């Protein structure tokens, strides 16, 4: 998977692009608490989790905390739910549902 420079240019310069292998290595090397990987779809989220699991097994670990990898829609739903239950928050707009297919 490669990212085009046009996509990266929209990001803050303090966050350089991170390759796939480097991402898996970082997720397997550190406790994943507080880190969320947002993917384009559920299949890719499952793939990231599976690759981290394989890296942990290869490192000889018997147990580990799974990384938090979510597809974009689930990430937005989580953010919305957290905002709804935030004591300092105010009521915001509801989430839009996908258009019904005829």
What overall form do the CA principal axes indicate? elongated
Low-confidence residue ranges: 1-11
Rg result = 17 Å
Helix content: 40-55%
> Structural class given helices, strands, pairing?
mainly alpha
SSE ordering: HHEHEH
Strand neighbour order, sheet with most strands: 1-2
Task: Please state roughly what percent of the residues sit in beta strands, choosing from under 5%, 5-15%, 15-25%, 25-35%, 35-45% or over 45%.
Answer: 5-15%
How many strands, what sense, and barrel or not for the largest sheet?
Answer: 2 strands, parallel
Oligomeric state as shown: single chain
Q: Care to count the β-strands?
A: 2
Task: Please give the count of helices.
Answer: 4
List keywords for this structure.
102 residues; mainly alpha; two-stranded parallel ribbon; 4 helices; 44% helix
Question: How would you explain this protein's 3D organization?
Answer:
There is one protein chain. The chain is mainly α and 102 residues long. The protein has a domain at 34-89. It contains four helices and two strands, in the order ααβαβα. It has helices spanning 5-8, 20-29, 42-58, 72-85; strands at 36-39, 68-71. A two-stranded parallel sheet has the order 1-2. α2 (20-29) packs across α3 (42-58). The model is unreliable at 1-11 (pLDDT under 50).
